[in-house]
Please model this.
Amino acid sequence: MKTQRSENPELTFPHKSVKIKIRKSENQKSRKVSEGIMQKPYLTKGMDQMKKLIALTLAAAVLLLGGCDNTANAPSDTTKEQTGGGTVSDSGSVTGGAEGSGTAAESGGGSKDLPDSSLTEEQQREYMIEHSFITEGDTSRMARVLKKAKAGEEITVGFIGGSITEGLTAGADACWAKLTYNALCEMFPDTKINYVNAGLSGTPSVLGVVRAERDLFADKSPDIVFIEFAVNDGQEQMYKECYESLVKKSLDKDNAPAVVLLFTVLKNRFSCQEHMSAVGEHYKLPMISVGNAINPMFDAGLMTWEKYSDDESHPNVWGHELVKDFIMNYINKVNEKAQSQDAPEPAPLPDKALYSTEYSGIRLLERDQMKVTKTEGFDESDNVIATFKNGWNYRDNTGASVTFTETFKTLFLVFKCNKSPNQADAEVYVDGELVKTLPSNKPGGWGNPEADLAWSGEEGEHTVEIRIAESEKAMLYGLCGIGIQ
Model:
């Protein structure tokens, strides 16, 4: 951490009631050591005398410290760097302190607050659970849901995210979302609890906000919404705006659901926790960090990544169970308070966005919902991608187009992307004008769905043509649908 030089610098020794101040005089003829330790003027002649003074001062401090009892104020290894609610990082953010003080700013959840190497496995788990908890935020919404469940009223729990939420590698029944649902069912055995898992592998919050109405809110109105996109999103502005738009879309629902943010992390410690936690702070939401919990364990040599995951990103069965414990730690904290108090009214939301909520009104339209006026060269398909069964496929090199008319001010294109020169580009024409060319050949593509912003402008009825760009090689394109608002 860079520090600025003070006019009255202090030498401070931690855990001791000793401070040494060196005060400047105008003519540099005297120096005084204060703070009740010693006072004696020193006559100086130039820089040599000043150096001698500093050396004498430091020597006196060392002698004084050497005679003090070092055990009374020194922290034990177990509590080292945990006092005071956290450790200040070089960026000024608080990292990995006590309950509720985990960093909301540090990408990937790295921490200088390391656990003691002598902790038992049970203590290590308790450490991770405690440090996963960033903040409970405003508890009014969650408290109302938990009181509702306690009273035996039906509730719905919804989850949206990427492959970690979907349960890739561990399985749908062993993922953190299903395990959290199971734990809630055990907590409220006499209550009907519905489960909605809208996790979708390889997808960021850009597609998340487009498909949320279909996948998360269409059949049921979740009382609790968990959002997990920290390792699927990027750092660009569009991700920040779509993530916040998804949060706002969820909070704005008529039933005022409780929204919980979960930040996962990759083996290389990449995570979008920094900008996502800023959204959480803005809306006073509960936040839970996997990186804050497990990275200090790696740094202390108490655990390896391989215990948590079998690849570079996805928790294994043990890892998903651990994440569930992180979630339930927060829920238990709120439940203890909720059952002894009246259900509070939801707190008002901020008047202004942090990044933008421009896309909170986006909704997905698939083939049978679109006002299509003309198609050429595209074949209707019920299996563009496993999760998008109502679109079009193009397999040729002669060109093709789909034309439709809708009322909107913002247009997203949802399509299948792959890393292949055979994947075609789509030219987007709005009211006869070419506004964007969107490639479906992308470096990270693997047959996954993608949503890209195609146009934004004046709201009204617009005619759109999606036309395959001319190419000698590109002959494949899968159009899943559009997102409009």
